[in-house]
Design goal:
It is a single chain. The chain has no helices and seven strands. The chain is mainly beta. The chain has one domain. Strands 1-4-5-6-7 form a five-stranded antiparallel β-sheet, with no helix packed on it. Strands 2-3 form a two-stranded antiparallel ribbon. The chain is globular, with a radius of gyration of 14 Å.
């Protein structure tokens, strides 16, 4: 949990195995793509929106607080990184770290 949100990272649609779990930093199989979601830990108290991203670098949101599926159905575009965001295939999904960047 981070700032009242539960963050989950899973293999993306059509992902393929890059490294076996035994070869990664945390024993989790490394995948070629990812889908990450952030949902309120307590809907209405810690947040009201849900967020999702994938290796495209775009961020999507919904106002229901329900996890956004990999298809991004029901989600609205929120923002796009200015530069292409590419995660090397050698980085295990379980080892990804997300950083919160505040923009004014």
């Amino acid at each position: 949990m981070k700032a009242g949100y539960t963050v989950l990272v899973v293999p993306g649609t059509g992902a393929s195995q890059v490294l076996a779990g035994a070869a990664t930093c945390n024993g989790t199989t490394s995948q070629s793509s990812y889908h990450a979601t952030a949902t309120p830990a307590t809907l209405g108290q810690t947040g009201t929106r849900a967020f999702a991203t994938n290796n495209s670098g775009s961020v999507y949101q919904n106002y229901t607080g329900v996890a956004i599926p990999a298809s991004l159905a029901g989600a609205r575009f929120c923002s796009k990184r200015q530069a292409p965001f590419v995660i090397p295939a050698s980085v295990p999904v379980g080892c990804l770290q997300f950083r919160k960047r505040l923009q004014t």
